[in-house]
Fold each of these.
Amino acid sequence: MSELKGIKELPESLCELYNLRTLNLSLKKRPQGMGKLINLRHLINDGTDAFSYMPKGIERLVFLRTLSKLVVGGDGDNSQVCSLDCLKKLDFLRGSLVIKGMGNVIDGAEAKKANLMNKKYLLDLQLYFSYDDDDDNDISEGEASSSQCRLQIDEDEASATEVCRKDESVVEALHAPPNLEKLVLRGYRGITMSFEWMGSLTQLRELTLRDCINCEHLPPLGKLPLLERLQIIGMRGLKRVLPNHFLQVTSLERLNIDYCPVFKQWAKIYHHLPITSDSETTRRNFGKALEAIENVIDETRAQFAVRGIYEDLMAYGYIDFTKEYGSH
C-alpha cells in the first residue's frame, strides 16, 4: 500500500484482517483500530513523514518484529495517541527503530516503561526530539542554523532549565538496548550526555549526535570500544574539545564534524598537540583514531585557507590554546 498515490487513509475495516502479517504503508493517517491486528509481524512505515501521530493500540501487537517508525504524542487527541510506553511488551522488535517526538515524553518514568533495554534484537535506534528532522536531507549551514532555531527554547530561563533536565532524565531512564550497533540522538535539549547506560553499548559502531544545541560536553567515548564512525553535527553549545579526546576510541575510522564552532580551534592548535607525532608507538597505539582525527584537522585547516574564518573565531569566543597549554 506504500505506492498507492493519492490515498491518505485506510478504512477501519482493514483492522478486521486478524491474520495479516505484514503492512507496508505511507499514509497521513492510520486506522484507529490497528491494535486488532494482533498477528501483525511487520509494520513498515518509514515513508510516513507527514504522520502527525500514531493511534493507541500498537502496544497490543506483541509479536511485532518490524516497526520502522514510532511517533510519540502529536496532533491527535491525547486519549487516542500513542505514548512511548506502548513499546513495553514489544520485545521481539529487531533491526531499526526511529522514534520521533521524544520531546513529548512526560518524564523519565514514562521512558523507563518503554523497557528498551530488553529489546535485545534492536541494532539501530534513532531518537528524534522533534518531528520534522530528516537525516536524509543535506542542508546548508544557513539552513542548519534555521533548523536549530526551531529547537531553541522560547520560554523563560526557569522553563528552559526544566526542559533541559526533563530531556536528560528521559534519555537516562530510556536505557538503550545493549546490542545496538548504531545510535542517533537528534534535537536533544539536555546539557550533559553522561548516561550510565552508555558504558553497556559495547557493540556500538556508529554514533550520530545532531542538533543537540545545549549540550556542552560529548559522551564518554572511551566506553565505546568498537566505535568506528562518529558524526557530530550542529552542536553549537560544545565547550572545549581537543583532538586528544578522540584518541580514547582506538577503533575510530571516520570522524565527521559539521556546524560546531568549537572545532574551528583545531586548525590553530594542530602543531601544538602531541598526537601529531609520527612515532611508531603513536601510530601503533592510535593508528585508526589518529588518521580519522587528522582527516578532520586537515579539512579544518583547509577552511582556514579557503574561507578566511579568523573573524568567525573571534565571534565565537575563540580561546588561544597555544597560550593555555603551551607548545609540545
Note: The chain is about 25% helix and 15% strand.
Amino acid sequence: MAFKKSTGQQLACKIVDLRALKNKVIREAEDQQSRHFKESTFPHSKNRLLVIRAFKESLQRKIQGRLDVYSREARILESLCHPNIIRIEKVIESSNTIYLFQELVTAGDLFSYIQYKGGKLDDIEAAVIVRQVLMALDYLHQRGIVHRDLKPDNILMTSLADGCRVVLTDFGCARLVRPTIERMSTLIGTFDYSAPEMLKSKQGYTKAVDLWSLGCVAAVLLTGDIPFKNSLTAHPTDLSRERDLEKLEADMDWNRIGQRARDFVRKLLVFDETKRIDVKQALNHNWHLAQWPMSAKLLVMRQK
C-alpha cells in the first residue's frame, strides 16, 4: 500500500526483489544440474569444463530472461492509458528492486466475483464484463500488444455491484509485437486458457490467442466451469478439445444460456485461428449489440 502525496490517493505497490529472483533462478538451475550432471558422466576434465561453461552461460540467460519479464511489464504498462487496464502511476528501479505503483483495485478478481455471485453470471452481466475486456483488448491490439495470459484471475473488479468497471491486469506475459514479426513462439501463460496454436510452438501464434482465452473466460462466466482442463498434462489434441466442446454443448446448463451468448463463445473457441473472430468482430457480435442498450445503462449507472 502506498499514497500519492499530491492527491492523497491510495495506490497498490508491487515490489519485485531482483536479488531474491536471481537466487531462485540459480537454485532451480542447480537442482536441475544435480539431477543430470554427475561426476561419472564426464571422465575427461576437458568435457567437464565445457559442460560447466555451457551451464554458466545458460544460467546467465535464464537470469536475464526473468529480469526482462518485469522490465517489459513496466515499460508496457507505462505506455498504456485505458479505463479497463490497470493504471501505472510510477515505476522506480534500483539495482536490486523494482517498485511498481499502480491503481488500487479492492474488490478482488473475477474468479472470486463469480463465486460471490453463486458460481456463474446471467447473460447481461456476463456481456457487460466481456465487452469491457474486449475494449481493453481492442486498445492493446491496436498498439501491437498481446496479453497472452487472459483469465479470470487477471481481471479485477472495482466493486461487487452489478455492472461495475473491470480492469485487466498482470502484464508479465504480455508482448509488444513489432510489425516485422508476424508470429510468436514462446510457450507462456495459463494452459487451461491457452489457444491450441500456442501449444503447437513450431507453427507459432498471433494475437488471436487472446480471443481464444476470452472465449474460455466467457464460458466460465456463463457456466461456472472451465471448458478445457489440465491442458498441458493431458497433452491435448484438437480432437480431445473438440470432445470437451461437445460435452460443454451437451450440458443442460449450457443450453439454458441464450443462443447469442453461446454463438459468441463458439466463434471464439475456433481451432483454426484464421477463422476465429477478431476483436472488432467480437465487439460487433449480436450478443453485444442485442444486450448493449441495457448493459450500457447498467454500466453507466454503476460507474457514476
Note: The mean pLDDT is 84.
Amino acid sequence: MSKDIPGRMDDKAKPLMSPQQAQFLSHQQEQQTEAYMAEYYQPTEAEMQRYYQQQQQYQQTKPILNHIPGSRPIPPAIEIPSRDQYIATKESENPEEILTPKSRPWVQRYLCCCCPKKRKHRILCCAATVSILIAIGVLLYFYVPRFPDIKVYNINLENIASMNTPYYFSYKDPNNEDLNQLILRMNLTMYLGTYNPNLYDLKVDEINLVANLVVNQTFVYNALKTSPLVTFSSLVQAIGIPKSPLPVGYVPSNNSQIGTAKTGNILFPSKTWINYTMMFEFEYSPGPEGLLKDPTILELADACGITSRYKPAGRNMRIHYDALSTIGVLKPLNYAPGVSNELQIVCPFSQDQIQAVIREVQDNGKSPQEAIAIVFKGSPKNVNKRVKLGFTF
C-alpha cells in the first residue's frame, strides 16, 4: 500500500481537468471577453492597451488550484461585468475615459440634451409624457367651451297683418319715389331656443343672426305653377318698370338677405334648453330687375297665394339663418363659433286680405301703400324725410 506523496495524485484519483481542457477553457474565456467587448462597447485606445496588459498578467500568474505537473498553468477565471457595472466602474476610476456604447453616438445625435440617454430612463420619460398628454386631453374634452345649439322656432309675422308693429317705407333716392327702389323695414319677433352642452354655465357676450329667404325655383320659375307679376296690368301700371338698365353680368339672387337679429349677455345653464325672443329687423329692397321681377318678391307672392296656379294656393317659405356667437373665453383666440340651420314659415296674410289689397289696386286705382293702409286699417310710415336728415334704422 503506497503512501500519498504531496503534490502527486493517487493512481485511482482522476484529475479535475486535463491540460487540453484547461487550455481550451482559457482560450474560450478570452474569446467570450473579446466578443462581449466588441458587441457592446467601443473601447478607446488607452482602454485596449490596458485590457491586453491585463491579459498578459493573467497568462503569467501562477496557478492556485488544480495544478497538474507538466501542464500549462490555468489562469484565473475572468468575471465579465455587466454593462451597467462596467460603466459605473469606469466612471468612478476615470470619468474622462469611459467606454462609449455603440448606440451612444446615435442617441447624442438625435436626442436633445434634456432627454435621458439611458433606455430605461427614456421609457419612463415617454410614459410620463403620454400620461400627462392624456390627462390634458381629457380636461380639454370636458372643459373647452362648446358652442351652444341654437334653434329658431318661428318668426312671428302675424303682427304685420294686425298692424301691431308699424312698418316703414323709404326709397333709395328720396327725391324719386320709384317703387322699384322701395325699401321696406319692420321689426318682428323671433322665437329661439338654445341648449348648452357644456358641464358648466356658459355666458355668451353676443349673438348675431342673419336670415336669408331661399327662393323655391321649382315653383317661382315654373309658368305652370305661378303667374308672373308682370301679367297683372294694374300692378304694372302702378309700379312700372325699372328705368335703369341691368348691370353687365348681373344675375338675380335666389338667396337674398331679408333681416338680422342681435342680442347679448345671456347666461345659458349647463345641459339645459333656454327659450327666449329676439327682435328681428326685417329689411329688404328689390334688385335692379325691379319689384315685379325680383325673385324674393316672387317667392313671397307665391307663398301668399297671389300668383299661385295650384290648389290650394300658397305654401311655406324656407328661411336659412346663420348665427355667430361671441364667447368671452374665446376672444383671445379670435374665434367666434357659428351655427347654420333653416326653418319654415307661413304667409302672415289671409287670402281675404290679399284679395282686398288686389281689388283696391286694380279696381279703385289705389297705390300699394294706400291699398295696404285701407285693408289693414292703418297707414305705413314713409321715412323719406328722416332719411334725408341722416337717420338710420
Note: Residues 44 and 56 are 19 Å apart (CA to CA).
Amino acid sequence: MKKELKKIVTMTAALVLTCGCIVSGLRRTPELSFAEGSNTEQTEKVTGDINGDGAVNAADILKMLQYLYGVSELDENETLIADGNSDSEIDVADFILLKNKITDPDALSPDDPFYGALAAPDLKNIRRESGVDAMDYMNFSAASAEAVLVDSEDENGAENPVYSPLSYYMALSMTAECAAGNTRDEIVKALGSEDIEKLRESNEALFRCVNFEYDAANCILSNSLWLNNKYDFKQDTLNLLAKDYYAVSFAKDFGNKQTANEISDWISKNTKGKLNPEIKIDDPELDVMKILNTVTFKAPWDEAFKSSGKEVFHKRDGSEVACDFLKEQTNGAVGSGDNYKVFCKSYDYGFRMNFVLPDEGVDINDIISDSDKLAAIYTGDYEAEEYEVDFSMPQFEVSSKFDLKGSAQKLGISDAFNSGKADFSSLTDNEKSGAYIDAITQEAVLKTDKDGSEGAAYTIVEIKASASPMPLPNK
C-alpha cells in the first residue's frame, strides 16, 4: 500500500542544479598520415575550409558536427584541414577554433604572441562519452554554502538568497591557474582538489558535460580574462586557460572608459540579458586584471506544474504571505535525512531541482550550515521511498549580490588577499606588481514557474597591484 505525503513545501535558501546526465561522446581520433604509396593528391591546408568551397562558414561547422556525431566521415584532406591545432585528433578544441574563425576572424590562435582568444563563450552541444566525476565540485558546493548563504550579507537584501556555486568554483579555478606557490595551494585546497592537475580535469569535464544549447533550453558556461595592457602577462598561462578552461583573454586599456562598458556588455551577452551590471575600473594604474565566469540556464520541466492561484505561504519567521502556487500529484521518491526531507523534480535535458523541507522546528540555515547534509542532498545519498506525492510550492523570482571575499577567506584562502604574501607569478611578474585579490563579487538571478526555470550568474575576481607597473618595452 502506497504511503501518502501531504504538501511538501520548499523553503530553500539556495538552488543547486546538479547535472544528472550521462553524455554522449564527441572525440574521434582519425588517421592523419597518408598511406605509403598513396596517389591521393594533398591539397594546401587552409584551416577551417573543410568542404573546400573557398570560404570558412556555417557549412564547415555543420560538416565538422556531422563528423563528431558519427553521421559522416572526412576524407584525408578534409581531416587535415579540420585539425586546427594539429594534434592528430578532431575534437572540441578544433570545433572552438573553427567557430572563432567564423565569429571573430581577427582573433589570433593561442600560439600567436598576443594576449589573444581561443575559447568561444558557448560550446554548442559538445558532449563526451563518459559520466563526469564531479565530487570535487559537489564537495565545494556543500562547503561554500554556509559561508555564502548564511554568513555573507546579500547586498540586495533578499530574504531568499540565491548563488551559483558553479560560477564561484570556475572563477576561483582560473584564479588558481594564475597563482603559484602557497597562494595556489590554498585556492586548490579550498576547491576540494588534490592538486592543480585534478582541478583542471574537473573543470574541463564539467564544462564539456554541462554546456548545451537548444531552442527551448540551454546551460552555457563562459570564461574570460580582462587584462590591463600596462602589465606584461605570460602567454603560456593564457594558452593553458584557453585550452583547459575555454577562457577568452582580452588585453585592454584600463584607462579607457569603454573597457568597463565592454566587460559589462560581455556579462550581459553571456547571461542572455538576465544580468546587466555596471562594471567599474577603480584605478587604471593598479587594476591588473579581472577574471570572469558566467553561467546561464533555462530548461522546461519534464512535466509542467499546474497553477493553483494564490495561497498562503508560511515564512521562516512565522509570518504569512500570499503567493502564486504550483501543484502536482505524482508518484515519486521522497528522500529522508537527518531533520529534512527531499523531493527532486526533473527538467528536460538531464537536470533536476532539489526541494528541501526541514522537519518541524528546524531552520533551513541549520541544514545549509551542515556540509555533510548538503553533500548527501546533492549526490542523492539518503534513504528514499516511493510515495503518492501531493506537491505544492510557490513560484518565485529571486536575485542576490554577494561580496565573496569573506567567504573565500573562511574556506581557507588567505595569502591571495595579502599584497605581501600573494603570488600570482604564473601569469604576471609578481615582484614588480605585488598583485593580490582585491575583490570577489557574484550576482545571481533565478525564476521558477509552472513551465520551468531560468537563471544566470556571474562571478568576477579582481586582481590589483600594490605598485604601479613599469613601462613595457617596445615589442
Note: The CA atoms of residues 73 and 377 lie 44 Å apart.
